[in-house]
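Throughout our pipeline, every protein is held as a single compact record rather than as scattered files. Nothing more is needed to write down the fold, since each code stands for a local backbone conformation. The record that follows is passed on verbatim for readers who wish to inspect the format.
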Amino acid sequence: MLSVPKNSKNLAGANAFVDFMMSSDGQVSVVKDVGGFPAVDWSTLPQDLQTQYNSVIAKSVPNWPGGDWDTILQKGWYDNVATNIKQGS
């Protein structure tokens, strides 16, 4: 996720960077150069890249907050991070 504070010293430059990172070229770089997952749907990226990474492209991503993922996230937080706090406190 990318964000730009509204009081940035170089707002235009920061916004240009975000625009590039969300472009097809920027997202291809995220996958190829950084080894990350794109912030856009895989179907918007070049077909050869989709084919190369087909084995790791998720068919679905859980929505958060809410749903089954929310329960798992809450449990993991209290079990592993906030171990000194009772859940629901």
